[in-house]
Design a protein that fits this description.
The chain has 143 residues and is mostly helical. The protein has a single domain, classed as Sufe protein. Chain: A. Helices cover 50% and strands 10% of the residues. The chain is globular and about 40 Å long.
């Protein structure tokens, strides 16, 4: 297994350091910290891609800025805290990485943060799909 980038490793450690019930509270904190969409995406929601594997409507867009650093933008309804939390973990944990670092993140990262007993497998598949979509969009931008 490849080493996680520092931000994702820290997030993983934070979750694993908690008891199961407290992991859901941390996920809720992440849900409340999902960054707002930049104005260009608020004005053009058609730029965002829906992650259909998620039970709740979540939309993402990835970009590389002028310095070739990665940014994941996501939106999900406030009444879907699990989905928002997962999107926020990825947005915060991947932000500022290089494309190479993002592509090396293990596809099973969502299963490694200790939530397999706290949330349904369907919800974890949604987070895995978000990560997969982000990597696919990144590969398309690099091509």
């Amino acid at each position: 297994m490849s080493a996680l980038p520092a931000k994702l490793a820290e997030i993983q450690e934070d979750f694993l350091a908690l008891e199961q019930k407290d992991r859901l509270l941390l996920l809720l904190e992440f849900a409340n910290e999902l960054p707002e969409l930049p104005q260009k995406f608020q004005d053009h929601p058609d730029l965002l891609e829906r992650v259909v594997e998620c039970q709740s409507p979540v939309f993402i867009f990835v970009e590389l800025d002028a310095a070739d650093t990665f940014h994941l933008h996501a939106t999900a309804p406030r009444e879907s805290p699990t989905t928002r939390g997962f999107a926020s973990i990825l947005a915060q944990g991947l932000d500022g990485l290089t494309a190479e670092q993002v592509l090396k993140v293990p596809d099973d990262f969502p299963q490694s943060i200790g939530l397999t007993e706290a949330v349904s497998p369907l919800r974890l598949r949604g987070m895995t799909a978000m990560l997969g979509r982000a990597k696919r969009q990144l590969r398309e931008r690099l091509a």
